[in-house]
């Protein structure tokens, strides 16, 4: 589909067809906010459930409590969620209003007028001044630059900080600026899309400006919304996409919410509680109806009618449903959201994760998945700019078979190369010429006269800088004319065509005319496999291949440079095909690549460049630490295989030989790849090396075949392997590999720094972007952004682990306190005729859920079971989080049993002390409620590992507040609790009862905890004790998971490979009570005995079918 934009035609129907330039990112309006927000909230099953319960409570015949006990918390929670949505939407409204109200110059009726940006329509001509923000997507038709160029800052669009050049179409060259507002024509362009790197369109100007010739347009002829005009006095352009239809507007949207492993577990546990609740309701409902028809009629004071309505049998079950509805805590979602928001703020506020070199802090964009950081099993990382600094330095080169820089390590100081430059060696001059002008670099002269280079690629910048240091200086670019200064002479080249780099072609070329001798030359640079196969027949390329191999072994990035002279006829014939391909609107990129292939052949290879990209500080240590934490690494890079392997060796990604083994999967056909894969699977099954020392290497070509034809077998290999190096991979292949690991139920984290990493980052369970030299695209698309790779260690081990621990406690405690009060209600029904009568009044129930038990646990967001130093020193303890040891059906059963036990204790002691005509029912209820409040205070205290003033205030201050509030309520005659708290607090029996409840409830818990801590301590318990005693720790030992179990015989690829893999539970279940411990002042102690293999027990996770 395409659209036709009529330029400067106020009567055009497109004015009405296409939207105006009003930007709207709002989700709501004043009229639809309430219904739309309520609809969204009630689309969740939990909220529908609570609404149903609240509505049933309006039926006075069945409700055991005042409806306010459910409606109050429900309205409060909905109000909090709605207020947050309203505030976020209001901020979006203010941002939209600011953009819409900006004033710009627009041509209307042939006259330039000052209008608001929101009044721009498609086809209008818009004028911009220097430093103006671009209000919509424009096609340039004029600039103040005589060569038709302008400079843009695109950081707001793609995160890249370097200025970009844009040029007016050739059809508009030479049109006087005074005539631009009168220009007429039509632009044929695609319908709006979000691809900011592509714009395939055609321009046709109407007479008298040009005689209806078609002029192709590309993204180079556009300036997009939210960019800023720099270093250009003025530009004017035609609006082609406006409002929310701009490329930036189409890119906006709400990303798919990510469900964490803990959220999934909480949902499962909630479902289990719901099923348990239904069973309880059915059993008690039947029991209640039986008691009513038998025992109830024997008592004169039970006034059941002899005959009731048809729905009488449903009354008691529904009453119990309402009574048991609090089994599922209504406040759990709000509590979790609040705590997750604080986790994200802790990441933002972490001063130790600020990159002091750039001043870039860490930032959590996604506030809902912090606990997943503590459960990461696989990290998939880019190489350039992620593991390395992306600071390219020209180190070595090979020109016409001669190696430079091998002795000194710096070709720029090699005397032989300097002499060759000084003597004017033709091979060297041609080599330096390609380095200097085969690029998209923009030279800019500073105020001091120095030449600065603005490059979109760090490789290009390094090459141009190196050429300049070797006296081939790229001085200026004026339109299509390049000025090069070589020694004392000045050379000029006219750029005829630029054949841009693509990930498929893996090379770029420029066609230039030498203004000195008028010859047309093709200059090319690219990967060796994209250049050397296209050299002229007869040229010896073996030396170049050896140079590439040698440099790659050193971990250097290599590029091959080549050239050839073109004949005039050949160029003109090709130019017509190139122009035709450039003007097509369908498959333009493919057509252009095909035409480029017709020119890029019979090349003369000139030499090889080798560029160093140094590792970032702390990368080897970070990878080593995270490996100890049981996290596996895959490197996904577009670089050469040997370069990637050398970088992997230098950063502890893989172990060097003979300890480490690299298994290569290669081949160009299906059969070759199949045999290679079988060989790798067989080797992995019989190797005696540690799994972390075995890695497989695969390139993009073989990977394409594996993912298409042998996906099942490759998935098996992924399960067996802890380390992989994937070279020459495309952005889409990176995303496919992430999806492959996710399909095996691994928790994945993808980290990258460039736009080519965005798909991988968005596909992973957790995306981390590095704010690097390639811009902010990755950081903006990610869930978390950091300044350097080394901060990943703290992000996972500290923030991820603490978030997991705190969320596990909060979620299970929320169920515990709800089940506790619910079990007491159930027990009370057995002494109240199984009638569904509530022991507690509505006010007490509402206060218990919203206030008494919520505030103390919220400060658990500050709790730390171990200090940050201990966690960083002993990363192995992350296994507890990866294994889900703190939140799983087993731990939940413990909390379930604790709530049942505490309910029995509270009920039996309260009833025996105050019931059976000794006191009023309200007094019994208040005694039971007091017992619950005291118990929960001690439970929170027992489960808290580190205390702060806030935690003490929340726990004990909340206990004091309980009595203060109830004293106030007891002073109100109409409250239904008049004088009750005064009477109870004045009775010694009340305090004795509370003491008995706490002693009986907490005694066994404390005894069990002491026994486990003393005689069967976990590794975390031992570390906690070490921290308290202050003794140094000699060694944590080796608690990595055992190698994945491998079959001794590898079956053919058509047969499903085994999917058994070792469980991260394994090292945790091997906690030994016999671990040696020696405590004392200054006495070191050793624990976690080293073991080369753990027990052979393992479990398997079924891999989803692909």
From TrEMBL:
Transmembrane segments: 45-62, 269-291, 819-839, 845-862, 892-912, 924-942, 949-969, 989-1011
Origin superkingdom: Eukaryota
Keywords for this protein: ATP-binding, Magnesium, Membrane, Metal-binding, Nucleotide-binding, Translocase, Transmembrane, Transmembrane helix
Recorded catalytic activity of this chain's protein: ATP + H2O + phospholipidSide 1 = ADP + phosphate + phospholipidSide 2
Membrane topology label: Multi-pass membrane protein
Region (Disordered): 1082-1106
Compartments where located: Endomembrane system; Membrane
Low complexity bias (residue ranges): 1089-1106
Domain P-type ATPase N-terminal: start-end pairs: 5-71
Positions of the P-type ATPase A domain: 101-163
InterPro entries hit by this protein: ATPase_P-typ_cyto_dom_N (IPR023299), ATPase_P-typ_P_site (IPR018303), ATPase_P-typ_TM_dom_sf (IPR023298), ATPase_P-typ_transduc_dom_A_sf (IPR008250), ATPase_P-type_domA (IPR059000), HAD-like_sf (IPR036412), HAD_sf (IPR023214), P-type_ATPase_IV (IPR006539)
EC numbers: 7.6.2.1
Keyword presence, Metal-binding: yes
Domain P-type ATPase C-terminal: 779-1018
ATP-binding among keywords: yes
UniProt similarity note: Belongs to the cation transport ATPase (P-type) (TC 3.A.3) family. Type IV subfamily.
Name of the protein this chain belongs to: Phospholipid-transporting ATPase
Organism of origin: Hevea brasiliensis
């Amino acid at each position: 589909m395409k659209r036709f934009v009529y330029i400067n035609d106020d009567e055009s129907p497109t004015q009405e067809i296409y939207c105006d330039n009003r930007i709207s990112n709002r989700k709501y309006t004043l009229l639809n906010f309430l219904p739309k927000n309520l609809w969204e909230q009630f689309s969740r099953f939990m909220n529908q459930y609570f609404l149903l319960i609240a509505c049933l409570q309006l039926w006075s015949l069945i409700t055991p409590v005042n409806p306010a006990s459910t409606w109050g918390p429900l309205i409060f929670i909905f109000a909090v969620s709605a207020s947050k949505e309203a505030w976020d939407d209001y901020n979006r409204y203010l941002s939209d209003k600011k953009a819409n109200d900006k004033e710009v110059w627009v041509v209307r009726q042939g006259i330039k007028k000052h209008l608001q940006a929101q009044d721009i329509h498609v086809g209008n001509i818009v004028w911009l001044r220097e430093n103006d923000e671009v209000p919509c997507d424009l096609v340039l038709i004029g600039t103040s630059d005589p060569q038709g160029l302008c400079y843009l800052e695109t950081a707001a669009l793609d995160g890249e900080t370097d200025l970009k050049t844009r040029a007016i179409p050739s059809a508009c060259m030479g049109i006087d600026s005074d005539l631009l507002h009168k220009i007429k024509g039509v632009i044929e362009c695609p319908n709006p899309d979000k691809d900011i790197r592509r714009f395939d369109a055609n321009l046709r100007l109407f007479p008298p400006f040009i005689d209806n010739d078609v002029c192709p347009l590309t993204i180079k002829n556009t300036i997009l919304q939210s960019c800023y005009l720099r270093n250009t006095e003025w530009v004017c352009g035609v609006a082609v996409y406006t409002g929310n239809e701009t490329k930036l507007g189409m890119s906006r949207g709400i990303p798919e919410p990510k469900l964490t492993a803990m959220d999934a577990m909480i949902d499962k546990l909630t479902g289990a509680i719901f099923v348990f609740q239904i069973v309880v309701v059915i059993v008690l409902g039947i029991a209640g109806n039986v008691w009513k028809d038998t025992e109830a009629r024997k008592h004169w004071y039970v006034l059941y009618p002899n005959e009731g309505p048809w729905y009488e049998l449903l009354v008691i079950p529904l009453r119990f449903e309402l009574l048991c509805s609090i089994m599922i805590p209504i406040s759990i979602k709000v509590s979790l959201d609040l705590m997750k928001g604080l986790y994200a703020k802790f990441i933002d506020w972490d001063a130790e994760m600020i990159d002091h070199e750039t001043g870039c802090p860490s930032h959590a964009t996604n506030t809902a998945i912090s606990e997943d950081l503590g459960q990461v099993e696989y990290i998939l990382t880019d190489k350039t700019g992620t593991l390395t600094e992306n600071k390219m330095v020209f180190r070595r080169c090979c020109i016409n078979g001669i190696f430079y820089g091998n002795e000194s390590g710096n070709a720029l100081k090699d005397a032989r190369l300097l002499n060759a430059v000084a003597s004017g060696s033709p091979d060297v001059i041609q080599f330096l010429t390609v380095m200097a002008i085969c690029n998209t670099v923009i030279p800019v002269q500073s105020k001091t006269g120095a030449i600065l280079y603005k490059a979109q690629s760090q490789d290009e910048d390094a090459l141009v800088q190196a050429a300049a240091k070797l006296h081939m200086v790229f001085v200026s670019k004026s339109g299509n004319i390049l000025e090069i200064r070589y020694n004392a002479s000045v050379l000029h080249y006219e750029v005829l065509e630029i054949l841009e780099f693509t990930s498929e072609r893996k090379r770029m070329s420029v066609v230039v005319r030498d203004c000195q001798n008028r010859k047309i030359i093709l200059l090319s640079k690219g990967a060796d496999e994209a250049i050397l196969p296209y050299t002229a027949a007869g040229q010896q390329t073996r030396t170049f291949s050896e140079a590439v191999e040698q440099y790659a072994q050193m971990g250097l990035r290599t590029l091959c440079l080549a050239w050839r002279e073109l004949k005039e006829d050949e160029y003109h014939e090709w130019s017509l095909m190139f122009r035709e391909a450039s003007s097509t609107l369908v498959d333009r990129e493919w057509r252009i690549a095909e035409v480029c292939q017709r020119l890029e052949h019979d090349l003369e290879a000139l030499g090889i460049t080798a560029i160093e990209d140094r590792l970032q500080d702390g990368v080897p240590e970070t990878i080593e630490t995270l490996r100890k934490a049981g996290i596996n690494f895959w490197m996904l890079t577009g670089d050469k295989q040997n370069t990637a392997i050398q970088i992997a060796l230098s950063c502890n990604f893989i172990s060097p030989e003979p300890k480490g083994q690299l298994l290569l999967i290669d081949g160009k056909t299906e059969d070759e790849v199949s045999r290679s894969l079988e060989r790798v699977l067989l080797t992995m099954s019989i190797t005696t090396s540690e799994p972390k020392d075995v890695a497989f290497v695969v390139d993009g070509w073989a990977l394409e075949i594996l993912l298409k034809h042998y996906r099942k077998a490759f998935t098996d290999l992924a399960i067996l392997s802890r380390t992989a190096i994937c070279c020459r991979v495309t952005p889409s292949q990176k995303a496919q590999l992430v999806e492959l690991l996710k399909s095996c139920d691994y928790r994945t984290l993808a980290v990258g720094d460039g736009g080519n990493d965005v798909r991988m980052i968005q596909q992973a369970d957790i995306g981390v972007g590095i704010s690097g030299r390639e811009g902010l695209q990755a950081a903006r698309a990610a869930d978390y952004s950091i300044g350097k790779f080394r901060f990943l260690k703290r992000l996972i081990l500290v923030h991820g682990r603490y978030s997991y621990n705190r969320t596990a406690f909060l979620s299970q405690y929320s169920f515990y306190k709800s089940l506790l009060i619910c079990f007491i209600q159930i027990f009370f029904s057995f002494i109240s005729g199984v009638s569904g009568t509530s022991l507690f009044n509505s006010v007490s129930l509402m206060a218990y859920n919203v206030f008494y038990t919520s505030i103390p646990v919220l400060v658990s967001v500050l709790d730390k079971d171990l200090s940050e130093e201990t966690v960083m020193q002993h990363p192995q303890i992350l296994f507890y989080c990866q294994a889900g040891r703190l939140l799983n059906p087993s731990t939940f059963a413990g909390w379930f049993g604790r709530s049942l036990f505490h309910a029995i204790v509270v009920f039996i002691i309260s009833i025996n002390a105050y019931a059976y005509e000794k006191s009023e029912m309200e007094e019994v209820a208040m005694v039971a409620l007091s017992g619950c409040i005291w118990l929960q205070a001690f439970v929170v205290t027992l489960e808290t590992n580190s205390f702060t003033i806030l935690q003490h205030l929340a726990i004990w201050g909340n206990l004091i507040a309980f009595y203060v509030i109830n004293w106030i309520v007891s002073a109100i005659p109409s409250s239904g609790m008049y004088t009750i708290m005064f009477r109870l607090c004045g009775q010694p029996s009340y305090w004795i009862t509370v003491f008995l409840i706490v002693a009986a409830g907490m005694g066994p818990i404390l005894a069990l905890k002491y026994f486990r801590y003393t005689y069967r301590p976990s590794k975390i318990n031992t570390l906690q004790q070490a921290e308290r005693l202050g003794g140094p720790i000699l060694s944590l030992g080796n608690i990595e998971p055992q190698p994945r179990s491998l079959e001794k015989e590898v079956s053919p690829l058509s047969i499903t490979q085994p999917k058994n893999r070792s469980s991260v539970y394994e090292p945790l279940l091997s906690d030994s009570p016999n671990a040696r411990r020696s405590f004392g002042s200054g006495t070191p102690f050793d624990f976690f005995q080293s073991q080369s293999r753990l027990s052979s027990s393992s479990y398997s996770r079924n891999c989803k079918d692909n």
